[in-house]
Amino acid sequence: MKLNYTPESAEGLPAEDASIYERVRQRRGGRLLPLDRALLHSPQLTDGWNSLLGAVRTKGCLSDDLREICILRPALINRAWFEWNHHAPIFEAAPGVTAAHIDVLSQLHPAGQGALNDRQWAVLRYSDAMTKDVSVPDEVFDELRRLQFNEQEIVEITLTCAAYNMVSRFLVALDVGEANGSVPAVVASHE
């Protein structure tokens, strides 16, 4: 990483900062990731980040497969391999997901939807548009409507993709986890 990681322990920190460390550690199941140890250089902003990303990951209505598509596409497009390596197993564990699904997701320019169902493909296309161009073409948005995504789902797709674009850009800019140069094998096979 381009910065030093913060200590694993909050020992010696002011009580407010120590409580932020503890909230992050609780969300992570008792441990701190390299991402957390980079963010914790700014405890107050880390607290907001932790709250937002915790909600995106655990409080929404999206199914695991759709949520992870919104996370993995920015990771792939932005070459955030730390993010990809953390989230690809979550996607692969989602009900009904096979190696053929991850194969499509790992292609920067997929030739077609392959194993993805129509809803997964629409979310992939929406996430790609948001990540590559920011503006989403009407035909890509209209596909979500045609597939009967409700307004809450559309907001959560948009927010998840936007949040993980933020995450990926932070990870890559600072080379968190020293992963920038480590293209995952499944992705490298398509380059």
Description of the molecule:
The model has no long low-confidence stretch (mean pLDDT 96). This protein is 63% helix and 0% strand. The protein has helices spanning 15-27, 34-39, 43-58, 64-77, 81-92, 99-105, 118-133, 138-146, 151-174, 185-188. The chain has 2 domains: 15-58, no CATH class; 64-188, AhpD-like. Helix 1 runs parallel beside helix 3, helix 7 runs antiparallel to helix 8 (138-146) and helix 7 packs across helix 9 (151-174). It is mainly α and 191 residues long. InterPro entries: AhpD-like. This is Carboxymuconolactone decarboxylase-like domain-containing protein.
Number of strands: 0
Shape: globular
CATH level-3 fold name of the largest domain? AhpD-like
Count of alpha/pi helices:
10
Residue windows where pLDDT falls under 50 for at least 5 positions: none
Structural class: mainly alpha
Largest sheet: none
Q: List the quaternary state of the chains.
A: single chain
CATH superfamily of the largest domain: AhpD-like
Mean pLDDT: 96
Taking all Cα atoms into account, the compactness measure Rg is 17 Å
Report the CATH C-level class of the largest domain. Mainly Alpha
Q: How far from one another are the termini? A: 25 Å
Approximately how much helix is present in the residues? 55-70%
User: Architecture of the largest domain, CATH level 2?
Assistant: Up-down Bundle
Helix/strand order: HHHHHHHHHH
Summarize the structure.
It contains 10 helices and no strands.
Question: Main traits of this protein?
Answer:
mainly alpha; AhpD-like; 0% strand
